[in-house]
Each structure stands twice: as structure tokens, then as C-alpha cells.
Amino acid sequence: MNEYFCNNINMMEKRLSELGTGKTAVIRHFENDDIFLKLMEMGCVPGEHLIVDQVAPLGDPISILVAGYTLSLRLNEAEMIWVEEVV
Q: Which of 36, 39, 81, 87 has its CA 20 to 30 Å from the CA of residue 30?
């Protein structure tokens, strides 16, 4: 198990899939290890800031700005990323 895998959810945190367009957040941890390496390779690392750029009309996929580029994620992938919204 990696150090970023966590089952204890902070009440200030929410899933990336719950953020609306234009919202900024910091990646805190991942829900499970299934997609951990894939997301890490794409720049989704804990502590990284991101912005929800676009959400498709039916909600899937979403587009985020992270690590200096635009990344498209399926909703089921975004649900595995726990973030803390920056207000």
C-alpha cells in the first residue's frame, strides 16, 4: 500500500468528480491503488493544484488543468481522487 492511499476521509475533502467548472483544488490522496500509478504518471500527485476546466454536457468526461497541461478524466477516475477545494 502506498503512502497516499487513505481510507480516513477528512470532512473538508471531496471527490474531484464533485467539483464544478472553474473550481480550484489541491490533490490530497487517492481512494484506491487501482489507478494510482496511471494518475501519478499524468501529473496527478498529492499536493498538486488543479482547476476544473470543463465538464461534458452529460458530466462525463471532465477536463482539468494540472501540472501545466490539460487532462481529460472519466468520471469514475475523478471519483477516486480526493481533493481539498481552494476558496
A: 87
Phi, psi for residue 21 in degrees, rounded to 5: -55, 135
Domains of the chain in sequence order: 15-86 (2.30.30.90)
Q: What residue type is assigned to position 3 of the chain? A: E
Residue 3 has pLDDT above 90, yes or no: no
Q: Are 25 and 84 in contact (CB under 8 A)?
A: yes
> What does the pLDDT look like over 27-78, one tens digit per residue?
999 987 777 888 888 888 899 999 999 999 988 999 999 989 999 999 999 9
Contacts of 49 (CB under 8 A, 6+ apart): 24, 25, 26, 27, 66, 86
- If phi > 0 it is left, if psi is from -120 to 50 it is alpha, else beta; for residue 55 that is beta
In three-state secondary structure terms, 14 is: strand
